[in-house]
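Thread: quick sanity check before group meeting

JM: Hey all, I'm pulling together slides for Thursday and realized we never actually wrote out the predicted structure for the chain we discussed last week. Dropping the sequence here so it's in one place. If anyone has concerns about the input, flag it before I start.
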Amino acid sequence: MSATIPSIEQLNKESDAVFIETVNTLFETAPPLASRLLAGRPYKSYSDLIDLAEKICLGNDLSEQDKLDVINAHPRIGENKANLSAMSLKEQGYDTRQGAVSAEDEQINATLAQANKEYEAHYGFKFVVFVAGRPRSQIIPLIRERIASNNKEQEMHTGMVDMMRIARDRLKKATGESHL
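JM (edit): ok, ran it. Output follows.
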């Protein structure tokens, strides 16, 4: 296992602070979710932990405000590199926080920033998508399509499902496991 992701057996024994820090690596800093996952210990596997997170996020356990807090924990796609978690930095295709951004990347990020503003104004929460190695330029038509769908409930659901896909992918990368 990776040094940043302890075995599930070890995680079950860790302090509340270490448990939450590890959960935040998978889900970003989302206290309403982390506290419920903490209360759900012990887990047989990380898959069980993520399955419970999905059940919590897609079920009726969270208030509307809690759901907003959870989905808004994720950084905006195209966010300034300095504001991204280490995992988001890699997922969005950056090598490091330092270094110049190309003129093309600046234009893509400006377009994404505008699309993010439109999405958030329309739905009241951040756009979350499982990038899955796609370049940020390919996300622009997707965010526009999802704004046009005009279905807030479906968007919240899609964002939460993608958060779980992101968490599973992060776990796979952190542990080197090919199956979860």
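AS: nice. The chain has a mean pLDDT of 87. The CA atoms of residues 33 and 140 lie 29 Å apart.
JM: adding both to the slides.
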